[in-house]
Amino acid sequence: MKDNKSTIGLAGNLWLNRAENKFLGGDRIILLEKVDELGSITKAAKAVGISYKTAWDTINMINNMAEKPLVDRLTGGKGGGGTSLTTEGKKIIAHFKTIQEEHRKFLDNLESRLGDTDSLYQFLRRISMKVSARNTFSGTVTKITKGAVNAEVTLSLKGGIPLTATVTNGAIDNLELKTGTEAYAIIKASSIIIGTDLHDAKVSARNIFCGTIAKIIEGPVNTEVDVEIGGGNTVSAVITHDSATRLELKVGGHACALFKASSVIIGVS
């Protein structure tokens, strides 16, 4: 293993990918184990040395990306709620540990054969980009309708939830999108509108997801609201503090998240 910062030492960091996108790694597995052990996101975050907000956002991302939810959160109630792993979550951890043992053996053999890893390092830097948008959902393209300039793309998220995006025809060609393609929908939290009792409302926004408020973080100017919309999917929105007060939003209450199709960015692995 070399000390030069521009070279890669194979330290045994294992990632499970979904559609070739990073999904679960050792740090997230440890977080899940602590959630299962302590029954609390707050305690788990403290145990692994991260903030509560980071832990919450990570668990939201994991549930959004997984085929089935790995973490089950109970809001309110006599016991004040709690957090635990689902059967699927426990199974994933067991599988990860088995793979990790074999992965370490593989890296021991591979490291001696790699030689100069500078070019590999540069490649990994290019593909390890992170996005600032709070909402990233995986899904399958179920429909593409092309117009003169733009195209409408419908993704089916977990639980069969449809999400609509508007992109250019050029983007369709560049991303090689077609029915059945695995893709990602990315939406900034500031692009999402929160409302209540909107099941029968007539609005121009193509995407209306209704569900249960899972978390509210109040600030002097803005308030963050997370809405669980089913299928293990959670939508995060940032609205003004005054709007949150006027809507009388409460954890465990009903709310709907709205956003335009043009606010959705489509990506593929």
TrEMBL record:
One of the protein's GO biological processes: molybdate ion transport
Superkingdom classification of source: Bacteria
N-terminal signal peptide: none
Gene Ontology molecular-function annotations: DNA-binding transcription factor activity; molybdenum ion binding
InterPro entries listed in its UniProt record: LysR_HTH_N, Mo/tungstate-bd_C_term_dom, ModE, Molybdate_resp_trans_reg, Mop_domain, Transp-assoc_OB_typ1, WH-like_DNA-bd_sf, WH_DNA-bd_sf
Domain named Mop: residues: 130-196, 202-268
Entry keyword set: Molybdenum, Repeat, Transport
SUPFAM superfamilies: MOP-like, Winged helix' DNA-binding domain
Any Pfam family: HTH_1
NCBIfam families: Mop
Similarity annotation: Belongs to the ModE family.
Protein name: Molybdate transport system regulatory protein
